[in-house]
Every structure is written in structure tokens, then in C-alpha cells.
Fold this protein.
Amino acid sequence: MLWLSRQKWLTVGFFLVLILCVPVEFPEDQFEIFISFSLLLSSTFSSFALTPSARCQWKDDLEAMWMDPAVRAEWIEVGETKGQKVHLSRDPDGQPYLTQTEMKAVADITVRRHFDSILDPEMICAIAELESDRKPLIMRYNKKTKETGLGMLQVYAKTAEWLAGGQGYQEYNVDDNPDLLHKPFINVYFGAAYLKWLTDYQNNQRSEEFVVRAYNGGTKKATHKSTLPYWKRYLVVKEALPSRKHVDAGPSSFHPTNPTSPGSNTNFTYWDSRASPEDMEDMWNHPEVCKEWTKSKEQRGKVRFSQDSEKRPYLSRGEMKAVAEIIVSEYFSTKGIKVPLVCAVADTVSMRFVNGTGKKVGILGVDYKTAAWLNTELGYRAYRVDSADDLTKPFVSMYFGVAYLVWLSEYEGRERSNQFIIQAYIKGPEHVDLEASSCPLWLKFEQALSYYEEPKRDQGSCIIL
């Protein structure tokens, strides 16, 4: 073992940490391994497993990314410099992810280079959203197949080896080093190769539905009811991709402003101007929020909201969950309202923007007329609501939003289903249609709910989220 290179030792050490699930603090210079887009593209970290043609391709990959107009504009906007390391975005837990713009570019470049543009890049992007939320370091153990999915498209090492050995996809050699599947271009290459194989399964031209459902559950389950929910979520996610819509698709569509990154000098909106001292103390006492705020170097009395590329403030999912937990436990603990449901409603109606979107005001999208009615007629008076501006305060919007959900859960004296409650909350109780088999609003809510529900962990496995 003494002859292993430093790069190999880093690889071995990194995966020992993952297997043992031991939390480790990395020095900032070593942590660059995780957050640099350049290093995830680079062959330096694992050059011993790349083919000769691929050893130099990482430079071409990065150059191709810079050549993409949308990526170039996004990177310049956040202060990245051509020829230097390009930093990956990180979620509140420090996990790196690709923005939707970066994901689209990787898919476009891969399809153009290797698949003669016959695959749909949007299919790849939508599957990456569902499988990993675009996180390249994610690993998930499948107890049915007893294999671990790697990277953004959750590619199995055995599948990549089979595609390379039996199907002729030999641009990259991952036989001896499956951790290469964490690199975006390599992961998308093998994920796309498998999608291509599915499109011609058994020498028959297959439909998009067959391909997507087979990708999720295998070819034998492509028409089974177990893969139908995945297909429905896929349709919603694909329709919401930025390339399909010219309107904003929420904070996840943008490269978020990191207060400590280059080019981040901007005017921030502050939590302390939108919450009482008591509520701020509760936030600081929340373990996940305290960790998130400490990591981003926030100061008591001057905590900044995250911002999208248009400088619109929004709550991280950790912050959203904390606000919901505080409000529900303090004022609605006996009402049977679940925190994940509340958070998913916020994702669906406001995309977590502090000021709301369109006609929806605040994070829960409650209009002033409804809030005033809840306040004066139903006695919800823990927070004051003197104008619509009050509803741009996260705790105020959360309080009246949950109150409205409670009222809808017992609408007309009957216990109501979640589907009724969600449709009624968004469209009004008089417009609920429970007969619709695939209501877009409900599907969008289900997708949002998956972000907040606790993942089911298999004993003995280590899931990185």
C-alpha cells in the first residue's frame, strides 16, 4: 500500500469517511476538492482511471461550459473568472450541487458530443432533479438491487461497467475507480448511455414514458403501477425547467449569492427587519439554522436572507422548516398539521420567496383579506396583521397560512384529505376537483413534499444528502 500516490490516498480516505459516516472537519484548502467545479471536471484527482483521450478532456469540458452563454453569464454574475477554479454552489449543509443552468449545459454538451443530439437533454435534466437534486456527491443504497447509485443520475457502477464493456461506451474507464461517476460529465455520459439503450430496448423504439419509468424501476417495472408516480413527478419537473419557461422557476433556478464569495457585494434584506427579537432567538436556538447561519458567518442582529440572481430574498429549506416547526409547535400542536406539509405548500405557492410571487404575498401566499378574516373572525391574534406588508414577514405569513390550513382541514365540518386541503388552499375550496387524476398543482406539491419528508434509511447504508 505504500506505493499509492497522494491522489489515491485522498480518494481512499474520502470514501472511508463516507462508509463510516464519521463527520470530519476539512481544512479550507482541502475542502476545495468538494466545492470546485474545476476539480469535479478535472482528471487530476483520479487520473489513473481515465483513458488517454479523456486525460485532457476536463480542460475541454470547462472550456465548453464557459462557451455556453447562459453559464458564462451566470458565472460572471457571481464573480467567477475564466482560467481560475469555478466554485460549485453549496446547500445549507455544505453539499455541492449544480445550478439548473449548469446542469442543462452539461446535458447539452454530452448529448451533442456523444449521442449525435438524438437524446433529449431536458429528459436528462429532469431525471437529475428527481434522482439527486443535481448533487454530484450523492450516494444512495438500493436494498432491492443491493447496489449503490452514484452521482446526479444515480448510476450504478455495474451498469457503467456493462455499458462500457458490452455496449461500446468507452469514453471513460470506471472499472477500477467507480468514484469517477461523481464527476458531472462522466455521470451524465453513462446515465445518457443507459437512457439511449432504453430507447431501443429489445430493438423496439420506446416511448418517453417507457424510458423514464424503466430508468426508475427497471425494464420489468416500466408498465407497473409502482413507477407511475415517478413518471408523474417527472412530467411536472420537466415542465418547470427554465428552458421550458421564461418565468422564474424559484430559487433553485439560480446560482445563489454567497456572502463570502467573490462578487457578492450587494444590498441584502435582513431577517431581523422581518422578525421579532423573540422569533429571532428561536431561530438561533434551532440547531439546523444555527449551523447554517454560523457557516455563512451571520451575526446576531444582522442575519441576511439568501438571494437569487435578481436579488430577491428567499428562505433556505432549512430556514423554512425551522419557521414551520416553531409556529406549529407553539400555536397548532393539537391540530394535526404536519411540518413537511406546510413547507411543501410554501414551496408550491411562493417558491420560498420572502415577498411571495405574483399575487401571492409572503412565503405562504396568504392574501391580506384572508389573514384579516382569520384574525378578527376566528381569533388568530398571536401576530398582528395591519396591512399586506405584514405578510412579507416569514413568521406572520407562516402563522396565518397554517391557520388557514387548519380551517380548510375541517371545511364545512368534515375532516378533509390532504389533496382537498392543498387544492382548496391554492385555488379556493369552491374550485377543488378531486376527480382529476393528475392535477398539476397536486403533483407539484408532492414533488415539494419529497424535499421535506425524512428519507428512509436502510440499516447499514450511508446516504449523503
